[in-house]
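[step 3/7] fold_predict: job queued, chain A
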Amino acid sequence: MIELIKGLSKKTDIQMALVLFRDAIEYLEIHNLNIDLHIIERKPKYNPTTFFKLHSICRQFEPDIIHAWSNMSAFFAIPSSKILKIALLNGCVANAPKHLRIWQKELFLTKFTFVFSDFIVGNSKAGLEAYDAPSYKSASIPNGFDFNRIKNIENVKTVRERYDIGNKKVIGKVAAFADRKDYVTYFKAASRICQIRDDVMFFAVGNGPNFETIKNAIPNENRDKIVFTGALSDVESLINIFDVGVLSTNNDVHREGISNSIMEYMVLGKPVIATEGGGTSEIVQDGETGFLVPPKSPKILANQILELLEKPSMAKEMGKKGKERIFSKFNLEKMTISYLELYSKLTNVSVRS
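[step 4/7] structure written:
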C-alpha cells in the first residue's frame, strides 16, 4: 500500500486520503507521504461506530474510489460505497491459502465483501484462485518495488563488522515470527548445515508472537551461529550481506502472495530458496532465480542452501537473473500504471499515467 501511495503521489492529478483502523503504525514512513491521515480505532473490534466515522470521512473527502486493503476495511466501506455511490476496489487478496472452507471466518467475510465490491484485485493469480474471486470483476496486479530503497544502503563491510561475521557465509530469512512463517523448518535446515560447516551464519529478521518461543528452542550448540535481529527499518542493508535469501512458509495455514521479502532478496541480487506454491511460484523461477522446495522439508532446504554455497558462480548467476526479473516485471512504475488504468476503468475518469 505504501509503495503504491509513493507511486501515485508523483501524479499531479491524484488526491489521496489514508484511513487506518488502528494507531499501531509499523511503517513510520507513512508520516512522510504528505497525505491526509485518519485513524479510526476499532475498540471494541466490531464497534458499529466505525461505519459512521468512515462515512463521515468519505462524505467530506468525496473520493472517486475507496481502495480497501483488507477484508475488514472492505466490510466497513460497503455502506459508504453504496450510499455515496463511490466505486469500491477490494484489494484484500494478499495471500493464497490452500484449504479454505466457507464456514471459516476469513473466507466467509472475504466472499461477503466480494459481492458488494465493484472490482477485486490480488497481488497474485494464485490468491484470486484460492479465494475463488469472480473472474469477470477481478485481476492480479503484482507488488512493485521502489528502487529508491536500495540507493543509500550501508556499506557491506560496516554491516558485517556490526554483527561480527568475519568471512562467514550468511543465510537470511526476513519474516514475521508467526504461525504462517515456518521458522521451524528454517532452523532445522540450519542445524543440519551447522553439523557440516562451521563457516555459516543464519539470520532471522523480524518479530512476532512466536519470537521468544522459537528463540528459546534453538539448541545451545547452534546459538552462536544464529542471529535474531528483531524488526529492522533498514532491512535492505542487512539483506545486502546475505549469500542466500530464504522464505519457508507453513502451507497448512498460509500460502504467500507476492512476498515483499522475496522481492527484497531478488532486487539485491540474492538467490532465493522458498516454499513452493501460492504467489511464490509466480515470482521465483525454479532453477533460474533460485529454488522452490516442498513445504516442511528441512533436509531439502539444507541441501539447496549447501548447493548454492558450494557453487558460488551459479548462486551469482541466479541472483543476477532475479534482479533483472524484479526490475523488468515487479517495478513500482509498472504497478502504479496498472492501478491507474484500473482506477480509470472504474470511474470513467481518465488519469495520466
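[step 5/7] annotate
DSSP finds 14 helices and twelve strands in the chain.
The CA atoms of residues 111 and 132 lie 8 Å apart.
exit 0
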